Amino acid sequence: MSDSDWRRAVEPDYVKDAEINELIGLCKGVLADGTLVQEEAEFLLGWLDGRFQASVSWEGRIIHDRLRAMLADGELDADEQRELMELLADFTRVDEAHESNLPTWLPLTRPEPELLIPGSAFCLTGTFSYGPRKRVVACIEKAGGQYKSGFSAQVDVLVIGDLCTPAWVHATYGRKIEAAATARDEGHHVLIVRESHLFNSLPE
């Protein structure tokens, strides 16, 4: 670690808090008009590149890693834009679960079901620890599964990213979870599982 990195690593907590608060403000500003363009993603990446405390915090590290992965090819496609908007909205709402009486538990299928990957249709929602959603999709398709970008009656399995916030009820991706749970309650055979269960079910 260089001298400059060491000095930044031992900065007082208020420096980290200030950077995180600034990051929250930037994310809210980016989301304010309901769209997210590549220039805004590149600005956020550049900002995080220069903010040690924000980029090594748990929340900042996830955003930083996703931005670097999504922009590695020089293009932020439509699916990545939607995924990034969900992630930033999730980050700015992280405390809302503590300010409401809404449930924070996930309606997962219990006991954990056997997943038959080949021929099954998968829908993804939330933030994945494995990486950007397209990497998860590639794993599913390599194992013979199909990917559906939106939840519908054709979906067999809804997979929730392991980094799903307790405030999922407030988040954009909460609508997919609610739709899947409602469909299941109405008798449709749809499984709701966590990311970790999916990857435990994929072939070696």
Automatic annotation (TrEMBL):
A molecular function (GO) held by this record is: ligase activity
InterPro entries according to UniProt = BRCT_dom (IPR001357), BRCT_dom_sf (IPR036420)
Protein name (Swiss-Prot/TrEMBL):
NAD-dependent DNA ligase
- What lineage, starting at the top, does this entry show? Bacteria, Pseudomonadati, Pseudomonadota, Gammaproteobacteria, Chromatiales
- Which of UniProt's keywords are assigned here? Ligase
Q: Organism's domain of life?
A: Bacteria
All residue ranges annotated as the BRCT domain in the record:
112-204
Give the Gene3D superfamilies listed for this entry: BRCT domain
Please verify whether the record's keywords include Transport: no
